[in-house]
């Protein structure tokens, strides 16, 4: 797969063992929705997220008991063989928590601070300073994360006041976008004055509407070389949230902007949290920015496809690949770039199968009941009968062993 996207050059930041910045792959991040005070539940959800591909996991640190629980969670993860960076998400009382529970800050791989929720008036600088001083003391990187829904009101009021004196005032929407950037960059400058280095900072400016997100990150990318964390905040549920996140992030990523991503989906009641990680990986793989797993190409079906057999075979192949990839990743380097085609009739079946590494063209309506298999563009065998699915999976296994072993 050829990657034609040229990434913006950014500073390199180490978050635990994970490198962030333009010298590293774009990282997939997620966040727990468990009560951090519940050590076992939070530990288990972090493991679930990591197992499907999350490279950094953020947890809420909002109470004293939650702060006390953080070192226990990190220790429990290590006991179970997981050293994935755990990030602390602080709002409103973070300055008190990191001061009273320094072991919490020490255990975390990164601190996330929202300038709009760190304090008001004269207390703002004092409380922001406490957070940065803890980061400096324990040599922890910081994400300064500005959010549209919790924007620093002092910055916003100042920019609205300045806008009134313009010959041609900007729209309220433009002022909001500018306030996000100003809040982030002023916070960076203040953090640096307190001893935090460029290689210890990551920025985000999240909004919930696609065009606003694209515009604000384009502006931000022109004004700093710090790594940027991308995400459409409050993206929503189901298809709506997936489509909105994909639409917004793809535009920005295509322009070379972004060093970490999170897809902020609202899970369905009782559904696993892991969907946001899988969507994030699919976005990066679809753009050719990273490869995580072999791709299954399958047609949508039409009146020419004789049954749902090709759909079930495509599902079986995808499930099989998902199941074996954790083992294959270490045993067969490069297998994540493999393309498998499962096609339902003769219209595009042979052509797509020839273009894939390995593919099968199943018989459509009125076609001979045979399924030719192609490997690297050449027909190698024709399958027929009731065991086509099992036989094709076996052929895929043999191809992987022969090609990537």
Describe this structure in words.
It contains 13 helices and 17 strands. The chain is elongated. The longest helix is centred in the C-terminal third of the chain and has 23 residues, at 309-331. By secondary structure, it is α/β, with parallel strands linked by helices. It has helices spanning 39-51, 64-79, 94-100, 102-107, 122-137, 153-164, 172-193, 210-223, 238-254, 275-286, 309-331, 349-355, 388-404, and strands at residues 13-15, 18-20, 27-31, 56-60, 86-90, 110-113, 142-147, 201-206, 229-230, 236-237, 260-261, 265-266, 295-298, 339-343, 358-361, 371-375, 378-383. The strands form 4 sheets. The protein has an 8-stranded parallel β-sheet. A 5-stranded mixed β-sheet has the order 13-14-15-16-17, sandwiched between helices. Strands 1-2 form a two-stranded antiparallel ribbon. The relative contact order is 0.09. Helix content is 45%, strand content 17%. It has 2 domains: 12-287, TIM Barrel, CATH 3.20.20.20; 295-404, 2-Layer Sandwich (Sulfite Reductase Hemoprotein, domain 1). The model has no long low-confidence stretch (mean pLDDT 96).
